[in-house]
Amino acid sequence: MAVPASARALRTSAVLAAVMIGASVLGSSLKPDLHLADTRPPVKLEALIPERFGDWQHVPLAQGVVNPQAQTMQDKLYAELVNRVYRNSQGETIMLSVAYGKNQSDSFQVHKPEICYPAQGFQVQRTGVADLVTPQGTVPVRRVETTYGSNRFEPVTYWTTLGDHAVKNGTDKKLMEMRYALKGYIADGLLFRMSSIDRDSPRAFLLQDRFAQEMLAAMAPETRLRIAGLQ
C-alpha cells in the first residue's frame, strides 16, 4: 500500500527533528578545551600569502579594501588579518582580504561578506555558490554581487575553512565543528575573500578564479591545506 504524502512528510519531519535534537544533545556534551591551532605551527598570513606569483604582484593600496569589521571587533575575532591589492600586467586588479581566527565557534567565527559589506554601506544584490576548480582539487566558494551607490559594482568570491577543510555552508561547518570537537579540539579557520570593481560580474568571477588558481599553485602543499583545505 502506498504511503500517503502527508504521512511521508510527517515521517520526514520527525526524522529531521530527531537528528536536530540528537545534534543538540551531542553538541552540549562536547566541551573541547584544546585549540587545534595550538597543536601545529602558527598561521602567519603575511608570510603565507605570497606577494608575487604568476602574473600578479602586490601593489600599494590604491583603492579601498572593505574591512571585515571595526578594529575592536577585528582584534576580538581575528588572530591574523591581511588586506592587499594585486595587479597583473594587463592592469587588472584584485582586492584580497584573508582573516584567520584561532577559535571558529559560533561566537567568534569570521564574518562573511553578506554581513560585513552591508555594514560598510554596500547593498548585496545577489548571492550564489560555485566550485573553484584547481589542479590540486576543488574548493567550494560563494559568489556575492554588491554595489555601493550607483557607481561601484564589486563582485566578491570567497571561501571559508574550518581546520583543514573548506566548508560548503553552515550545516557543513557545524558537522565539521562537531567532528573536531569529538577529538577534543576547538577548530581554527579562515575566510579568503577576493573582489574587483567591475559591472560585468561573470567576467569578474572568472578573473577572481584565475587569481586564486595561480596563487594556490604557488603555495607549498602544507600552506594550501591551511588556506583552502586542498589535500
Structural features, described:
The chain is an alpha+beta fold. Strands 2, 3, 4, 5, 6, 7, 8, 9 and 11 form a nine-stranded antiparallel beta sheet that branches. The protein has a two-stranded parallel sheet with strand order 1-10. The chain has helices spanning 5-29, 45-48, 71-77, 113-119, 170-182, 201-217, 221-228, and strands at 34-35, 52-53, 56-59, 80-88, 93-101, 123-134, 137-148, 152-162, 165-167, 185-186, 189-195. It folds into two domains: 1-30; 33-228, Protein Transport Mog1p, Chain A. The protein has seven helices and eleven strands. 31% of the residues are buried.
State the CATH topology of the largest domain: Protein Transport Mog1p, Chain A
**Percentage of helical residues?**
25-40%
CATH top level of the largest domain is: Alpha Beta
Structural class: alpha+beta
What is the strand tally? Answer: 11
- Give the overall average pLDDT: 84
Taken in chain order, the helices and strands follow as HEHEEHEEHEEEEHEEHH
Largest sheet: 9 strands, antiparallel
Number of helices: 7
Low-confidence stretches: 70-74
Write the topology of this structure:
Elements: H1 5-29, E1 34-35, H2 45-48, E2 52-53, E3 56-59, H3 71-77, E4 80-88, E5 93-101, H4 113-119, E6 123-134, E7 137-148, E8 152-162, E9 165-167, H5 170-182, E10 185-186, E11 189-195, H6 201-217, H7 221-228
Parallel strand pairs: 1-10
Antiparallel strand pairs: 2-3, 3-4, 4-5, 5-11, 6-7, 7-8, 8-9, 8-11
